[in-house]
Structures are given as structure tokens and as C-alpha cells.
Amino acid sequence: MRVERLLQISVALLAALGSLLLAIGQGGHAALPLMATMAAFCSVYVTDFRGWITLNRNLANFAALIAVLFSFFDFWDADDAKLVAIAKLLIYLQIVLLFQPKTIRVYWHLAVLSLLQVVVAAALNMGVSFGLMLIPYSLTALTTLCLFFVYRETLRVDPELRAAHDAVENRPLFSFLAGKTPDRSETASDPTAAVTLVGQLPANLATVFSSGKMFAQVLKMSFFTLCATVVLFYSFPRFDEGGALGQSLGGGLGTQTGFKDQISLNDMGQILQSDQFVMRVRLTEVNSGKIKDTEYEPYFRGTSLSTYFPNSKTWIVGNLREYRVSEIKPPPPGQDYVRQTIATNQGMRFDRTNDGVLLFSMYPAYASNRTSPDIVDNQTLGVLSMSSESRSNERQPEEYELIVPWHPFGTKSNLRPCRHPLTDHEFRSYLYRDLTQVPLDKDFANTLFPGLRKLATELANGLPAEENGAPTHVAVAERMERYFVNDGNYTYSLHVLPHLKNTRLDPIEDFVVNHKTGHCEFFASALAIMLRTQNIPARVVVGYKGGEYNTFGKYYAVKQKHAHAWVECYLPSDQLPNGVKSDDYPNGAWLRLDPTPASRLSPNRQSTGTIFDTFLDWFDYVELAWRDYVVDMNHDRQSKDIYKPLTDNLVKPFEGWISREQWMKFFRNSLESMGIYLSDEWFSGIASIFTMLILLVLVVVFELCRTILRHAWPHLRKLFAKWAPAHQHRAGFYFKLEKLLAKAGWQRDRSDTPREFIDRVIADCQERKVGSEMVSPMTELLQWYYQIRFGGRTLAPQQQQAIGEHLLTIEQQTTAIRLAARGK
To answer: Which parts of the sequence belong to the Transglutaminase-like domain (predicted)?
Structure first.
């Protein structure tokens, strides 16, 4: 196949791969990149092969100007929109170039645009699919560069093909209007002069760039380039301790629904539900480390919200400064525990509390032997934080470990012991000041939630009374929870505002009474306020529920779409559920209630065990490894995962060889074994004598080894010559010739050239009538030396073999001359 055809196909494939990388980066807005991919393959046939549509330079420049103006208006939007606008502009320009007749200029422009597309795609998305696509892109790029080099060099050495190439720029606007444009090869005087991989190239280039050899070389270059890239990427030190590739390229600090310390119901028309990775959670047994299997969706707690402001329709945490924090402590005995290891996405920035960076965990949480001492626990609010006293801009840790109670089933799974460092008076103040107050409208007093109050009263009054004449708090809470989940015809939806019936009402009241459609924040808010109307302390808890359980890696991949909100109500020790011992909860307990109708299945039930599910789990595991060890590879992770293991495995085993203390200990032990005991003084006569003896022995050993090597070197050199005879054809044979002649008495002066010296030796042999048989070998050796040294020539195999024969002849002649001289 002609090299130009291969180059056209390769450039089109390069453009298509660059567009696909942009499609991956833009996610749901990938229609234009996919169209560019189709245009790349279409242009090969209609423009390069058939020549039906070929835009001339003037029309192409005009179309490019229109594309620039068309994309200019997109630059006025947000930062992400600016990147998308750049991506669109690159695609427009690429399409214009693809339908032009291909010249060296067009090839260069297409290659540069494709590279810019990769850069923009990296800024938009650094997922594992992007990394996998880089491998075929790199291979195609190297192939394109090699073909481009062959094509350009061929044009340079062939004037007819160069003239045909220059004439391409003058084609008509649309070639089908003026008849088919002749092929590039037909414009030359000789139709057989098409540019092929061997074609018009010089012999050395034609040999290197034959089809099979060229692509083999490309594969080799790709392999070694990939290996060198990996080595440099991981070995080159990162100086920014908090930096990571994903952050430097603008990778995601997106909204964190589950980590927000407030909920704004009025402004939340649609909750952000993205596939952005938040953290990886692995549950294992404390002692054995065996993976802990669970059939329920675990709740990963973030923070609790206590105060609702009707004016702004917002839940907030409250005044955190009123509540004391404590160091996280080891777990108390007598319960079953599980170890949870949480690895966070360093491309996100978690929210902060007054005590530091907000952490996420099943709760209550306790310390293991690998838990950071910087983690503090606000037991009153149930909030974990990473203390930030040392650095004000501290990020969440890459990984942290906690111990949590294990109650996957039964009543205890929803109960949490009430722990707090407050006095009874302070805790009761917290309960009745923050958790039982129903928000009031500033103008209409108690009429803010009339429908909600009425519903809560009806549900509570419909329960059977206990001994004290009122239903228990547990019965009321569970009845209200069942009402939202099963009895009230409520539906779960992320789209809220279009369903509002009366915008003058509070959104919680409107949700309960009218539209009955909402997301988890509406359900949790409504249940918390309904419980408060019955004097039951309640608060809203935000965090994440469940995750995508990966059967391959045995972990939960928690993403933004798993953000969730639920309710906790306080139960005094005399209000605990039946079957629960009050001695186990002396300070009462927090009961978890989830009023949101099920919006997703349990993670373990999502996987059906098919090949496709296994592939998805494997791909998710690879994506996680890509994110951990490529995108988020910062200074700390590099030191921990690369430098430290190398140091431990390669340097530490040899530390004893360079340690002064180790050597001193070795010498002391050796001397003591011989009955010599050294004092601790800095100078010792016995040690000095011993040191001098050691040095004397080393000198004797060194001289002995040098003498043996000097006498054995001639024999070793002959052995090396037999093992490597292929090196005899190098220019070094001439210097061997000079050494042989020097033994016979002919020394080369510094002012003599090799030719002058050999001519002088030949003249002396003819004058003395000796060594006539070595005249011809010396002449040929001199000629071959000049051809190699100054002509860059490689000798033929017959000549390489003749070198050894000539040197043997000269050695025999010089030996005979030397013996004859001694005989005289």
C-alpha cells in the first residue's frame, strides 16, 4: 500500500481517537465528539480515496473563522463551560481540516489539534477509560509520525512527487463539479512513482522502513516509551505535598451532598446525583482480617442537623462550640466489632467542622491500633473530625481505620448508645432546646405546619396507649416511619420544584400535605418535625447509605449518588424497645429511622453473578487503582507506596555494611573471640597494631592479585578473542597491526599518518628484502581502515574473515624477522 494512503488512514484514526477522548471527558455531552469521529473515517473515503469533496484553502480558512466566532460566545459561561467551548472549537477546526486535500501542512495541523484534544480531555475527565484510551492513541501517534517522516523524506528526494504535492493546494472548491480530480500518483509523469514504503527512499531508509520492519519498530518504541513513562512517573519526586494529578488538571471538587453541613430545601430542585467517587469502604473481622459480608446497606454517618430556619428553608448543625469533643477511644469489651478501612477520594475536598475536617464512618466508632490520634469524636452530635491544629488547610486523610459495633440484624441494628461528655443538665438542655422545638412562623405563630401537626397527632392517637396513658416513643416513631414508607402513598423523586402545589407554604408542609413527592431530605425533615410535635427529640442526619459493592475487590464504592438523609430520635432508658436491656443503654439510645421509600436495592443484591457483572466489578476495581496510584499520586502517597518500600527492601538490608557502629561491633567481637579486649578510649595500642596488620595484609593481597592478572592477561585476551570473533572487523585491527610491527622494530612517529607509516614500513621491507609476504596484507588492511574510519563503510563478511588471516600472516613474518635479527 502507498505510504500516503497509510498516512491518511493513520491521521484519521488519530483524529478519531482524540475525539473519542473528548467524548469520554464530556460524559453526557458527547454528541459532537462522536460526530467528529464519524467525520474522520468518512473523510478518508470521500476526500482522500475518492476525492469527491475537497475544500480549497480559502474556503477552509473561512469555515475555520466561522467556527471560531461560533465558539466565542461559549467562553462567557463558567470555567467548565470554557473547557467545553475549547473542545468544540478543536472539533470544528478538525472537521474542516479533514475534508481538505492532505498536504504536509494539513497533516501537521491535524496532529497538533489531536494533541490539544487530549490535553482538554485530560482536564475534563481523568478516569480509567481515559488512561486505557491513551495506549492506542500513543501507538497510533508513533505510527503517524513514522509514516509522516517517510512521506516527507520521499517528497524531498523526488522532485516530480514534490511538484504533484504542491499542486494539490490548487484544487477546485468541490471536485465533483469539475470531474474527478486525478489521483496524486497520476499527476506525476510516471504512474508507478507513487510514494511507497520502499519506493523512492534511499537504500538504508528503504530497508528500515519496509512495512513489516517499520511497524515492528513502532511496537518496540511504544513498549519502551510506556515503560520509561511509568518509571519516570513514579520515580520523579513530587514537591507539592498536597498536589495530585487530578487536582492540577482541574479534577473534581464537585458538590458533596452527603457532606454538606446544611440542607436548603427551597433551593434544591434536583439533588446532585453523580457517579463521582467519594470513598472506598472495606469491612473486615477485627482479629482474622477476613472480609465481612453483609446483606444490608450500611449507613455511613456524616453529621447531624438540629436547627431548621423557616425563612431560609434550611437545616443547619447548630452551635458546635457548645459541645465538647474527645479523643476517640478503644472499643469496650463484650460486643461484636468489625474493622472498617476507609480510603477517600483526594480529588474532593470534604467539609469542615469547628474541630477540623469532617470524616465519615459507621457510628459509633472506636479506635484501633492504626487509628490516627488526630481523629476526635463529638459524641453529643455524633460527628467525627480530623483535628487541624497543625495545618489550617488540612485535607481529609487518604485512608483511616475505625472499629464499629456489628449488629447487622434485629432491633439493635437501629439503636446507638447515647454517649456524651455533658452533664445531665447540659444534655437535657440540648434535647429540649434544639431537638424538640418546632419552628414557628414569625407572623402566624403555630400555624407554620398545621397539616403536618394534624397528621402527626392523628398517627400518635391511633396507637394503643400504654400504662401511663400514652403510646411509647418507639411506637410513635415507628408508626410515622411506616406511614411515609408504606401507608401514605409517598413517592421518591429527585425532581421536586415542578411538583410544588402552593409555593406560599413551607416546602416541608407542602410536601406532607400536597404533592407527597420528594427526595430523602424532604422525608427526613418531615419525620423529624412530626416527632418534635409529639415532644420526641429528633434530628436529621446526613451522610451516605450503602454503595456499590464490588465482589472482586470486596469493598463498597460510595459515590455521590449514594448521598442520603435519615432521622435519629432520642429514647430515654425507660422508653427502649421491648427486649432491649436498659443496663446496656444507661444514658438512653438514639433510634435510627429511615422514612424514605427504597430508591435502590441492597448492594449485595445488585450483582446477579453474570459475566457482565463480574466485568463491571473488575473494571471498577481497575478504575479505583487508577485513581489511587495515578490521578491521586501525590507526595505523601509516593513516599508511602514507592519510596518507603524500596528503601525497606533495597537499602535497609545493606545498612549494616555502611554503619560504623556495626563494623566496630564486628571488630570487637572478632578480637574478643581471640582473647583481645579493647577499652573504650579513643586510642588503643593493640587496636593500632591490629589495624596496621590488616592494612599490610590488604596490600599484599592487592599486589599478588595484580601480578597474577598481569601474567594471565595475554591468555585471557586470546580466550576473549575466541569468544567474540565478530569484533575483529572493527577499526581496532589497525592498532593491532601497529603493535605487531612495533615488535619487529618499526615504531610509528607521532607526526606520521597511518598511510605514511605503512608506506615507510613497505619501503624498508623492500630495501632489506624481508617480509615480502606481508606487503600485500598490510596494504589491504590500510585501505579497509581508511574506509571504516573515514568512509563510514561496513566490511563484507569475506573481508572481516580476511582481516584475521592477514594479521596472522603479518604476525608470522614479524616473528621471523625478529628471530633473524637475534640470530645475527
So the answer is: 512-597
